[in-house]
Design a protein that fits this description.
By secondary structure, the protein is α+β, with helices and mostly antiparallel strands. The protein has a single domain, classed as Lrp/AsnC effector binding domain/regulation of amino acid metabolism (RAM) domain (Alpha-Beta Plaits, 2-Layer Sandwich). Helices cover 26% and strands 39% of the residues. The chain has helices at residues 16-23, 50-61; strands at residues 3-11, 29-34, 41-47, 67-74. Strands 2-3-1-4 form a four-stranded antiparallel sheet. The two termini are 13 Å apart.
C-alpha cells in the first residue's frame, strides 16, 4: 500500500462499539482501537494513493452511523 492514515474519530455517546464493528468491515481499514481522551476510536487506513484514502474516508467511513466527527492524519 502506498498511503497510510490515522483516522481520529469522535462518536455519539454509546455508539463507539458499533462504530468499531462497522469499521472492521471496511476494506482498507487495517486496525481499529477504542481509546480514551478527546477521541473515542482510532483507525488505521491504508490505500494505494492519497486520493484513495480520501475516497475511503468520505465514502466508507463518514457514512457510518454513530460517527460525529473525524480528523484524518496522513503518514509522511
Amino acid at each position: 500500500m502506498g498511503a497510510k492514515s490515522y483516522i481520529l474519530i469522535e462518536t455519539i455517546p454509546g455508539k463507539s462499539k458499533d462504530v468499531v464493528a462497522a469499521l472492521g468491515k471496511v476494506k482498507g481499514v487495517t486496525s481499529v482501537d477504542l481509546v480514551t481522551g478527546p477521541y473515542d476510536v482510532i483507525a488505521i487506513l491504508e490505500a494505494e494513493t492519497l486520493n484513495d484514502v480520501g475516497e475511503l474516508v468520505t465514502g466508507k467511513v463518514h457514512p457510518i452511523q454513530g460517527i460525529s466527527r473525524t480528523v484524518t492524519c496522513l503518514k509522511l
